[in-house]
Design goal:
The protein is an alpha/beta fold. The protein is built from five helices and 13 strands.
């Protein structure tokens, strides 16, 4: 039903398990030749630093391939955590250029505020648009683990926001591109619903 990218230091086992729980067996992708073009959906999980993740995509020759599939062939893609962050052009965390398929950039949470950095644990979504990815959620509390967040994102792209010292985009959608800053695979039934909504997209 979809292609699950395995790249960088992250263990995609929890994402695969969450997909298995809703009856989906993904095709695991570590290089372009493994992409199953019968299924025009991609999940891109990511952990670790922005630069290391981008470099791992380049090393696996998936950086340009993902851009082509998404921008030209119009595959639907769901980025998770650093996977979502990779959609933007740049991050204060490093010097590498992201995929640059959504306008915006990544900035660090203000450590001078009383909120802890990294932002780690459960937090609520403020849903701005309940269409598609966020439809019929059983709960709106999700698990986060990050020190950088998206900024300068066009308002119509933001499906939901979360507060942690500042309001930031937690879920985004631009055409065939979807992203979540939280971890649906660690967010119980509501996370599984996010994944199912993505799979069910036409």
């Amino acid at each position: 039903m979809l292609n699950l990218i395995k790249c960088g230091i992250g263990n995609i086992g929890s994402v695969k398990n969450a997909l298995n729980a809703i009856g989906v067996e993904p095709t695991i992708i570590q290089k372009p030749s493994e992409i199953n073009h019968k299924y025009k959906k991609i999940i891109l999980p990511g952990v670790g630093s922005f630069d290391s993740f981008i470099n791992s995509l380049r090393k696996a020759e998936l950086y340009d391939q993902i851009k082509k599939l998404v921008l030209i062939d119009k595959y639907k893609i769901l980025g998770i955590c650093v996977g979502m962050q990779s959609f933007f052009k740049s991050s204060e965390e490093g010097i590498e250029e992201g995929l640059d398929i959504i306008k915006g950039n990544l900035i660090k949470f203000d450590v001078r505020k009383e909120f802890k950095v990294p932002h780690m644990g459960w937090n609520n979504l403020k849903i701005l648009n309940s269409k598609s990815l966020l439809s019929n959620l059983p709960k709106t509390k999700f698990y986060f683990a990050h020190s950088y967040h998206a900024a300068n994102v066009e308002k119509n792209v933001i499906l939901s926001e979360t507060e942690h010292g500042v309001s930031f985009p937690a879920c985004i959608n631009y055409k065939n591109i979807y992203g979540v800053q939280f971890h649906p695979e660690k967010s119980f039934f509501q996370g599984q619903k996010i994944l199912k909504n993505f799979i069910d997209l036409c």
